[in-house]
Amino acid sequence: xxxxxxxxxxxxxxxxxxxxxxxxxxxxxxxxxxxxxxxxxxxxxxxxxxxxxxxxxxxxxxxxxxxxxxxxxxxxxxxxxxxxxxxxxxxxxxxxxxxxxxxxxxxxxxxxxxxxxxxxxxxxxxxxxxxxxxxxxxxxxxxxxxxxxxxxxxxxxxxxxxxxxxxxxxxxxxxxxxxxxxxxxxxxxxxxxxxxxxxxxxxxxxxxxxxxxxxxxxxxxx
Length: 222
Fold this sequence. Notes:
Layout: H1 6-17, H2 20-47, H3 52-65, H4 68-82, H5 91-117, H6 120-128, H7 133-163, H8 175-186, H9 189-221
Helix pairs in contact: 1-8, 1-9, 2-3, 2-5, 2-7, 3-5, 4-5, 5-7, 6-7, 7-9, 8-9
């Protein structure tokens, strides 16, 4: 038996690329929902809203302090025992929810730090001309904070893409699941997971390139 079969590896690539859209869709949805949650959490922490503030601190601590795979299993296998109505939730939805919650904990800290980096006089000036706190955040503070947060948020997105590979443990058919099934069927795990590494490497390198372009564009804009 050959140590490495290039024919098998090349033949498997088209099949794995067929499921690339599942990985990307899962990652993009998790980024969008995670970012929405992160903005809300960071604003609550920034303004120290009573009752909500300690809850969000525990939320961030929990999702940053526990493994992603344990969170996914907790959502998919654990919560169903407490809430039987969740039995109808499919693996893809669970993976998106888990990735969103996990990513939001990291992104909220990034956004909070970016907001803190904006000069306090900006907020004072916005409030002095009659803006509400939320208007000042939306029109003045967040646009400036975005430029600071973009590099770290881009890294968070890359982490989401890599984290999505754990979705196969819930039964989601994506790149990693395809590699596992095809590798097991032909006893060619080396070739299958070499393909996985190459695909993820290329995809993440592409997003890294786009990240740099976006940073340059935002730097020029400001």
